[in-house]
Amino acid sequence: MNGHSFGDPVRLAALALVACTPFVASATARPPQAQTAPAQPQRPAFTTSVDVVSVDVNVIDGSGHPVRDLSSSDFTLMVDGKVRRITSAQFVPVAAVAPIGGSARSEPAPSDYSTNVGAPTGRLIAIVIDRGSIAPLRAKHVLAATTRFVERLGPADRVGLFSIPSGPAVDFTTDHASIMAALQRTDGQAEAHPGTKNIGIADALGFERGSGITIDNVNDRECGVSSNGRGTTGMGDQALCVKLVREEAGIVATYAHERARNTIAGLRNILDRLGSSDTPKTIVLVSESLVIDGERNATAGLARAIAAAHATIYTLKPEASDSDASEARAPLGAARDRAVQEEGLISVARIGGGEMFRIIADPDFAFTRLESELSGYYLLGFEPEQSDRDGGNHAISVKVARKDVAVRSRVEFTIGATRQTDEQIVMALLRAPVLATSVPLRLTTYAFQDPESPKIRLLVGMEVERPVDPGGHLALGIVLVKPGGEIGAALFQPSIMSATQAAQSQKSFATLLVDPGVYTLRAAIVDSHGRRGSLERPIRAYMTRISRFRATELLVGDEDGGDPAAGGVAPTISGNLSGGLLHVYMELFADSPVGFDGTSVSIEVVPAEGSAVVDSAPAVLQLVAGDDRCRAAAGAVPISRLPKGNYLARAVISLDGRKVGQMTRPFRVVKP
Question: What is the pLDDT of residues 167-190, one digit of tens each?
Fold first, then answer.
């Protein structure tokens, strides 16, 4: 087969780095608004904001599995008792956990581009161990089950560990091994009943309330004296016993209240630490007791903090058996004590939109049920009224028009008085630790040398799957983050207009001017309906040293991916080529013009799993922008006769006929 060149490599460079890039940003200045390609008419910039509030809701069937086939018409959402219009209802599936004893696996991500399509939907799960409430012996078994729960989570899940009142703490991470190691260093610190009398928490609270029936029953049981100790005088044994019972009841009640206040304060601190991003978070509180009897204000304001953190709280309560060896004496009134101890845990789970699960004989059973419930949720978008935007607390309820299902949703929410702008939403998405997948997108990069500085000109290409919407637009943000967290470059584009004709995807290009280095690129978009998408990609913004040259990355494309008015060729984003020619472009830099003497470049195509060259063509070397220290190498190879599959494009650099190096880029041949 005969090869075909691009014709004018300089023109292709302009196409790749100028005509296809609607905006340019640097690391030191705020980027300008988008400028469209010269061949396109001027488009207006949008300054609208998205007035849609997102609420995550779990709908669970009788066996504890998420219900997956609901639409927006199946939900009814009310704020302060008044119905609000639901604009969207998206079920967000979460990658299934691995079976017990196994580990989760995922397919390797493509190297030439990144996508949120089919990507594992990671969750934010905060495990909170209420050490002060858990008996040391029970903690051993419960924390071992917690460790197995973490081991079975998906690789994209970010897990954090927090301890109350103190103990091991690990911020959100996908390094699950570090969480499991910290759990192994965690124990229970609940103190055994120190007194000589068998006073349960229900008895102690009865004494605190002055319940005559409770006081009489306990005195009769412990001292053989009824009627509140009346008739016992002096310092006889019975009088001393009654006095001791009263004192011990006070100690038990005080200790329970102190523990409850510690737990609630710890939860508030954790919620504050989680921040106010819209990313759904799950808090798993492992606690043996939360006594709120007589402390009705203990949970006041907790619902607001939960709503602000966008969190759902599940509580797991280890249960002591009636013959627990960790108890000094067999418990009396165990059922009453159990009800008092779990009242607060049930309340926290209710206002947190979750559920309380008891850990009885098999601790893995409760965690398995939790795993099932967390395997998917609905993201509801609804339009708030102006009265909702007062910054105050508002009751929210979600119902489903289906029998035999349970709906898990928070009971309150708060919206600021000011609507979120597109830019605020995009910035929040860029900071969020998990991907948004409502809008499917793909992204790739090509690194080139900036001709006027030592910086790298990074071409960022994005492909967005979106329906045709004449009045719709996308807001886009991109940020490059250095390993230490410093921002290397950033931009915000307020409006990318919707495609005007039916198409499965829409492409957009940008150029970032950055210092050479290693970065994490994060990109986020929101459309005019409030749908959101985000992804991240590791980036090496370097030139590659090949013999006497510094080489840019290999840019590939085909005519089916380009704009005919701009020349018909555009860089590929997903690596999928459906045209008849594989077009290739790269640049070589030398210290002086004589460095190019005897230099040649050839373009080769080889199967991804092989080494035999299936076709090749010479590349044309030409000056770039009049710089005699730079040459553009461009060429094309026919691919119309190649079968569908994965291939590798190679630009082979030779000096005096001897190969000195090559640059490669994978691509895939697809048929229309």
Answer: 999 988 889 999 999 999 999 988
